[in-house]
Design a protein that fits this description.
The complex is a heterodimer of chains A (76) and B (203). Chain A has 76 residues and is mostly helical. Chain A is built from 4 helices and no strands. With 203 residues, chain B is mostly helical. Chain B has helices spanning 14-36, 38-48, 52-68, 79-93, 113-121, 128-132, 137-146, 149-160, 165-172, 176-202. The chains are: A mainly alpha (76), B mainly alpha (203). The A-B interface holds A 3, 9, 12-13, 17, 19, 40-41, 43-45, 47-49, 51-53, 55-61, 64-65, 67-69, 71-76 and B 3-6, 8-9, 24, 27-28, 31, 35, 38-39, 42-43, 46-47, 52, 56, 59-60, 63-64, 67-68, 110-112, 114-116, 128-129, 131-133, 135-137, 140-141, 144, 158-160, 165, 183-184, 187, 190-191.
Chain lengths: 76, 203
């Protein structure tokens, strides 16, 4: 069988989002402990998320910061 | 402390003067809090908008509106979510959300697709971090902008903005279940786009 881990794939996103129930979490952990391909894929997904966040983060231009501050409504 | 600018109201009744002073102080505090969040709001806005220019305009419109309607913010609730709700509404109103033509809707791969393609293409990779590093920063920004808006909004709020499913649902005014399904599909589409650009570079 090419990919015996379809259920594990299904659990990956909720697992990494920390929204699994304790029971589902335990089941996922148990599978990961004995399945190296899935473990690697989970690790990859985790580092991908970190990497995407880092790569997509742009500093706000200083000019824009000034423009926003200038939008404040002056005290009467 | 009474802000200096409220001195003009000394002629008003004492209670009214007091009320105005309190309000002025609350408003100044609101503005300062909102400005302190601008970096975090921009981080998300940059990818909700289609370009830096759009993000720049959207930020200004959002803050202008926020400063005008500060009274509708409930102190103690999540101000970053409140600002992003204004921002996403403006983004929709302004028709900046150019959807892809339907035939351009990317096919979805499964969740392991990107890893499998990258690993296939590497020489028996053993380190997952190195697999990720085969993607450039440009690849990521381009792939993100190629994800259709409905899906991208959710991915950007949750994965870049660290919002919970519930916060994202409130900001976008959609059910939590929709957040979850769009997030799932959006991440898959993103990975498919990344696989495409990574494989193009490799050939």
């Amino acid at each position: 069988m090419k990919d015996p881990c379809a259920h594990c794939e299904e659990m990956m996103q909720p697992y990494l989002d920390h929204v699994l129930t304790d029971e589902e979490m335990a089941a996922a952990e148990a599978h990961l402990a004995e399945c190296e391909p899935c473990r690697r894929r989970y690790r990859f997904e985790e580092s991908l998320r970190v990497y995407v966040r880092k790569a997509a983060t742009e500093q706000m231009p200083a000019e824009l910061r000034q423009k926003l501050a200038a939008l404040r409504i002056p005290l009467e | 402390m009474v802000p200096a600018g409220t001195v003009a109201h000394v002629d008003a009744e004492p209670e009214e003067a007091q009320r105005l002073a309190t309000e002025a102080r609350d408003r100044v505090r609101f503005e300062e809090d909102a400005l302190a969040l601008s970096d975090q709001v921009y981080r998300v806005a940059r990818h909700l908008a289609n370009s830096r220019e759009d993000a720049d305009e959207l930020m200004q419109e959002t803050y202008a509106r926020a400063f005008r309607s500060w009274r509708s913010f409930q102190p103690g609730t999540n101000m970053r979510a409140w600002l992003l709700r204004i921002l996403t509404n403006l983004n929709i109103d302004r028709g900046r959300r150019q959807q892809r033509a339907p035939q351009m809707q990317p096919l979805e791969a499964n969740d392991y697709f990107l890893y499998d393609r990258l690993a296939e293409n590497g020489d028996g990779i053993t380190d997952e971090d190195r697999v990720v590093e085969r993607l450039s920063q440009d690849d990521i920004v381009t792939a993100l902008s190629a994800v259709p808006h409905d899906f991208r909004d959710v991915v950007v709020l949750v994965d870049l903005g660290d919002f919970s499913y519930a916060d994202a649902a409130q900001i976008l005014d959609i059910p939590v279940g929709t957040v979850m399904s769009r997030l799932h599909r959006g991440r898959r589409i993103l990975k498919r786009e990344l696989a495409e650009s990574a494989l193009e570079e490799a050939t």
